[in-house]
Amino acid sequence: FLHKLVLGIETSCDDTAAAVVDETGNVLGEAIHSQTEVHLKTGGIVPPVAQQLHRENIQRIVQEAVSASKVSPSELSAIATTIKPGLALSLGVGLSFSLQLVHQLKKPFIPIHHMEAHALTIRLLNKVEFPFLVLLISGGHCLLALVRGVSDFLLLGKSLDIAPGDMLDKVARRLSLIKHPECSTMSGGKAIEHLAKQGNKLHFDIKPPMQRAKNCDFSFSGLQHHVIDKIIMQKEKEEGIQKGQILSSAAHIAAAVQHTIACHIAKRTHRAILFCKQRHLLSQSNAVLVVSGGVASNLYIRKALEIVTNATQCTLLCPPPRLCTDNGIMIAWNGIERLRAGVGVLHNTEGIRYEPK
Ligand code: KG4
Ligand code: ZN
After folding, report:
1. Number of domains in the chain
2. Three-state secondary structure of the chain
3. Which residues form the Gcp-like domain (predicted)?
4. Whether the CB of 190 sits within 6 Å of ligand 1
5. 127-138 pLDDT, tens digit each
């Protein structure tokens, strides 16, 4: 065969996703089933529910991706599957299914680290050479790492508590933005970005966290509680407001929150760039910062990061939104990268066991 072909399978959280990708980065087939709607109703992911939904959908999603690719399963070079980190019950569904398939088709198996896959996605689109810096910001992730090779990461910073998307989702809930006529179909983060355009960020004074910390870690939970306290205070001020009604100051709060987390994320990233340059871990003149994850689609946060990259002679790259969020393509591509580098390709999966709780 001319090309390496990898089937990637992702079930670490609330998306059941699969894709077939070739060595040059062509996406031959993909399919995804999102559980977001179900989890929105419960106000968060209930792991056994997620597990059940993965079980109901995995066979169909993998089949859809493979048939769309027009590749016969026997032509696959390997099967790559997310094995960590994530919800144990969700991961188990993908892993069990993949091991069965690996056994049935007699193919090599490539276990994938979900964060490595997010970080390497950009190389499917751009010729980004190692090393580069990656910032992953989503509802479940928050980290800064230096990517030195396919499986060679230096973790520079992470959130000490929750991820920024998680915080935005909680604030949006407190603001009842789901009831806002313009925001009812948006994720919490997107609703805040939308509303912030109509607000004044200086109306509320919210300080960025960790201003004196001499590292590249993040924190969002103190900020979250501070903002929620402000919301409660505003609710008391705006007398007669009904439960679920939108505060008249909601846009100002959204603008202030967005501004504060943009500053926090930009400052921590600035520290990481300076750290890497001082230690000659990154090129002085053409370093690359890759930003990915659901929160990376926020244009205000991107602007803040652009200011940082412009000031430090770095190039800022973001994968398109559909590749920023969880998907099967990134897992398949990580499989291709590992095949090419010759790392972590298992020809015998006898020893791998997964016992769901
Ligand atoms: O990557 P993702 O789809 O899922 C994971 O969390 O893994 O990210 C979803 C998160 C949610 O918390 C959502 O509120 C946030 O990304 N998000 C945004 C925007 N769009 C989605 N946050 C800020 N601004 C946005 N435009
Ligand atoms: Zn993810």
Report:
1. 2
2. CCCCEEEEEECCCCEEEEEEEECCCCEEEEEEEECHHHHHHHCCCCHHHHHHHHHHHHHHHHHHHHHHHCCCHHHCCEEEEEEECCCHHHHHHHHHHHHHHHHHHCCCEEEEEHHHHHHHHHHHCCCCCCCEEEEEECCCCEEEEEEEECCEEEEEEEECCCCHHHHHHHHHHHCCHHHCCCCCCCCHHHHHHHHHCCCCCCCCCCCCCCCCCCCCCECCHHHHHHHHHHHHHHHHHCCCCCCCCCCCCHHHHHHHHHHHHHHHHHHHHHHHHHHHHHCCCCCCCCEEEEEECHHHHCHHHHHHHHHHHHHCCEEEECCCHHHHCCCCHHHHHHHHHHHHHCCCCECCCCCCCCCCC
3. 26-333
4. yes
5. 899 999 999 999
Expressed in angstroms and rounded, the spacing between residue 221 Cα and the centre of ligand 2 is 20
User: Nearest ligand to the C-alpha of residue 139?
Assistant: 1
Answer whether 92 contacts ligand 1 (Cβ < 6 A). Answer: no
Q: What is the pLDDT of residues 241-277, one digit of tens each?
A: 777 778 989 999 999 999 999 999 999 999 999 999 9
Ligand 1 binding pocket mutation candidate from 178, 295, 298 (most atoms within 8 A of CB): 295
Whether 323 and 56 have beta carbons less than 8 Å apart is answered as: no
Q: Is 165 in the pocket of ligand 1 (CB under 6 A)?
A: yes
Q: What is the pTM of this model?
A: 0.93
Residues 37 and 86 in one domain: yes
Q: Check: CB of residue 94 under 8 Å from CB of residue 58.
A: yes
Mark whether 109 and 157 lie in a shared domain.
no
* pLDDT single digits (tens) 315-329: 999 999 899 999 999
Same-domain status, 95 and 192: no
Ligand 1 midpoint to CA 141 (Å)? 10
Confidence check on the interface: ipTM exceeds 0.90, yes or no: yes
Is residue 347 included in any domain, yes or no? no
